[in-house]
Amino acid sequence: MNKLTQRLAQKRAGLEKLLLFGTLVILLGLVNWQIYQKEQHLAHGVKVYLELAPVDPRSLMQGDYMALRFKIASDIRTALMPQTNTESIDGAATEQQPSRLSNHDGFVIVTLDAQHLAHFHGIVSDASAYQTLAPNQQKLQYRVRDGQIKFATNAFFFQEGHAKLYEAAHYGEFRVNSNGEPLLTAMYDADLKKLEYRAEGGEQESNN
Q1: How many CB atoms lie within 10 A of CB 108?
Q2: pLDDT tens-digit profile of 55-78?
């Protein structure tokens, strides 16, 4: 009986090790696949520049990141929340907007100029609504969360102590894949010069 119990325990231990090993292999495979997808996204995604909009100065820089808001978000908000005419007590017509956007994902169609700067064209609730786009157009996914319109992220992270360099940020560079998913890659100044830190020369702006 003891020998049978020992054999069962050994088999159970062997199965547990095999299960653990298989789980690790699957996890490593998923991580590597995500890395590969991100590399492909960066290598083959369409370059799109979104112009920054002013943010609350208190949240602009927080040590190792800057808060982001893009001007095109205002165009999206206006399209999603059209102004409605209401009548005041004195009979005069006034315009009023709903106070808050509901959480959802959607797509904005942008027109790209020669420098790949994005200009608002229109919004759609489903990417399939635009099967064909003009050669200079691109669909771009956005998300509404807690009333805020976001593109991939609402913050750009950098090494602590480099905040001064990014005070000149004017555009965010995204790489957009065929599904319209944006990936923020870098920040650029008003002249479309990439903002990056170069250790040997200090904080410098350089062309991409």
Answers
A1: 23
A2: 654 455 555 778 888 999 999 999
